[in-house]
Design goal:
The protein has about 120 residues and is mainly beta. The protein contains no helices and 11 strands. The strands form 2 sheets. Strands 2, 4, 5, 6, 9, 10 and 11 form a 7-stranded mixed beta sheet that branches. The protein is globular and about 40 Å long.
Length: about 120
Amino acid sequence: QVQLVESGGGLVQAGGSLRLSCAASGRTFSRYVMGWFRQAPGKEREFVAAISWSGGTTYYADSVKGRFTISRDGAKNTGYLQMNSLKPEDTAVYCCAVGGSLRVGLARTYDYWGQGTQVTVSS
């Protein structure tokens, strides 16, 4: 059974930083992509960032490029999302997901999902 567990969310002031973690267990992920998605109240889920598990290739939504950094630690089977210069519009539930497709921006291509962690940015 694959499990993804996110942590690191919370309340932060605009301009602040948070680092989200996504711990994966249940299988090896050397050929998978890990992605982060977010969903704000009343809005559709949107792609944030993704990383190829072994190669370290990264992908970002334009809205977070230059502010967020995705990384992973293969030895720990854990992915990270460092979020800097946070804005109120970044407020959302952030979920990590793992999948085998390079269509990293499409939620339906991911096989496994975490429960999500709330990020709230106050103005």
